[in-house]
Amino acid sequence: MKYTTLPHTDIKVSKICLGTMTWGNQNTQDEGFAQMDFALDNGVNFFDTAELYPVPARKETYAETERIIGNWFAKTGNRDKVVLGSKIAGTGDYTAHIRTNGFSKEALNDAVNDSLKRLKTDYIDLYQLHWPERNTNTFGVRDYKTNPKDKWEDNFNEILHNLDEIIKSGKIRQVGISNEKAWGTMRYLEESKRHSLPRMITIQNAYSLINRVFEGDLAEVAQRENIGLLAYSPMAFGVLSGKYVNGTAAKDARLNAFPHFSRYNSTNATEATKRYLKIAEDYDMSLAQMSLAFVNERPFITSNIIGATNLEQLEENIDSINVTLSEEILKAIDAVHADIPNPTP
Please, which residues bridge with residue 23 across strands? Predict the structure, then answer.
């Protein structure tokens, strides 16, 4: 395994992070336990979860993933071996069953306290805001458009003050953002600088061969401001395993089980995937390992959040840390990206 540190801290984390969003839905507790055992045994010390998980978010399974992780901590006593990240859910139609008061002081305190109980721990290493409260272009929407119905009022300073209190209580160590844009990221950073408030040290956004949107303004922000990307969906919901274009996907594979994630199986996404698969085959590697190695090597990456529904996938994904892509492969990848840029924003 390779390691880095969370920016502006001395917290050492594996370059591969274990994603958990299938546990409690596609995966049982026993399978989640097996994945955590395997990951830790193979050098992965960074686990990421959220109160929202498992995905898709449903009232019936709300926070089941955190409960599974907490049960594993209780069983194994391994809490001190893991750097743990979790998140408070943002506002939206599919989170109304969680709460409706956004990132208010009450919401943040309730969310942290409830997560700590489920996780059976007294602290969370990295606590993240799952997505912005304000209206913006998230989840498949390419361009920002003004929404006259957006009632959001600037509350960056208030949120950071409330997080500061929670940090001082010892319940969380560091804070980060997720699904944020360049403007929101800079607003948080500027508020931190001007008012000596907690600094957002990471940003967790989607990033993969078929979604390189982060390489716009956010990549410059990440590098110049030293805020590390925690890349999620590096396999694009399993599309970049090649199993869908090869016709080998199981009936319960993610896109078959949850077809409403349609951005991952568009015509352009399928064509780009076929071309990336050809590159991988030409260089005698799996598309999965090429896809993950590409993410691992980006200069703005702090950690690559991998997910798997079985141990065979997990082993292949973790082993991507040992794969190095040549200049020839990178040029071939960029040629496809130039022809079909970001088909799954």
Answer: 27
